[in-house]
Amino acid sequence: MHTPVLAGPALEWLGIREDGTYVDCTAGAGGHAELIAQRLSGGRLIALDRDSAAVDAARARLARFTNVTVLHRNYAELAEALASAGIDKVDGILLDAGLSSVQLDDPLRGFSFQQEGPLDMRMDTSHGPSAADLLAAADVRSLAQILKDYGDVGPARRIAARIIDRRDAGRLASTCDLAEAVSDALAFVRGTPDEVRTVFQAIRMAVNEELRWLRSGLEQAIDALAHQGRLVVIAFHSGEDRVVKNVFRDAARPSRELLPDGRVKQVIAPRLTVLTPKPVRPGDEEVRANPRSKSACLRAAERRREEGSA
User: Fold this and answer.
1) Could you tell me the CA-to-CA distances from 169 to 107, 126, 166, 172 in Å, in that order?
2) Is 206 strand, coil or helix?
3) d(CA 227, CA 208)
4) Tens of pLDDT along 158-178?
């Protein structure tokens, strides 16, 4: 059974009311969603996921809850999803930006470097180019930039060049081929280089445009929150956490609407209060029980009252 990461802190920071309305933007196998649903009595939960396999798994796990609706949606479609469900404002939103264990453990999805599989890596297998498509179109420069931007990979150009060489030789057809290309580029490293993991992470994030959709989803989530509604986000990568931190910071500051001539038309009050000045991280016990939680960090914020509202 999939173990949800930082489940205790996530529920605590959401501050769930039994009659409230909540959204799990990344249902996955339904771990977090199930814990939220258990705390509702008269409330409602909308669970979203862009992965059709995850939607099927979540629907099966949550079938006993009559107040839970699971939708096949990208969280960047949050506003549209809530409108279709007849919901205006919600009391809490959870967004877990990480890859689910269900996705990682299926070799046919191509997310893991530890299992032979196709170079797919799409979270929604019915839409968009795969990792194989991305790698087929890349040159050394563009691939190195992807590795830097999404994986913080140090020897990015060296690794990118080896991957492209292997592709041009017709030897880049599977996840194992990609992992071997990275290891070949760092042949002086004993064992499996950590860069294998970060290269897979970077390519996956680029294929799924994860940072772009994350920013869009966060902005829509802030707009969807009722007064004192909570937004809780779990990130696993420095780039993801940077996006969350910056969106929270900007929403917690006054902003200015300008006239065409540059003069200030109005000052817009802050929309959020940040509740976690520093990210919440898993304890040693959780990391021992679930090593995949090691890099997780949680941030939470609360919606402030809009000016002029009662």
Assistant:
1) 24, 29, 5, 8
2) helix
3) 32
4) 999 999 999 999 999 999 999
